[in-house]
Write a structure and sequence with these properties.
95 residues; mainly beta; 1 helix
Amino acid sequence: MAIEITHVRFANPEHKTHDTITRLKWKNVEKRSTGDRDLESMVTWLGFPSNTAYVGTGSNRRYLAVVEAEDGPAHIRAHHDDAGWSDDLLELPQF
C-alpha cells in the first residue's frame, strides 16, 4: 500500500528536525482514505516491503525511508533517487 504524507507534527514546533517528528497525517489516494500515525508506528509500518510512503506528487515525489539513528530512536526521511536525503518532509504543513 502506498500513502502520501501530507502533514507533520513536531515535539517542539520551534525545533523542526527529522528526529523530532512525532506524528504524520497521510492519505491513500487509491482507497480514498486518510489518517494519522505516531512516528514509531510509521517506522514499523514502513518496515513491511509492501508499504511505501512519499511526499509530493509527480516529478517532485520523494519516497520515505527509515533511518536507524546511532544515538536515538529510528526516524524517517525523504530520499531523492540520485541526490541523497532531502528536507521535503520538514517543509510539510504542521497539524
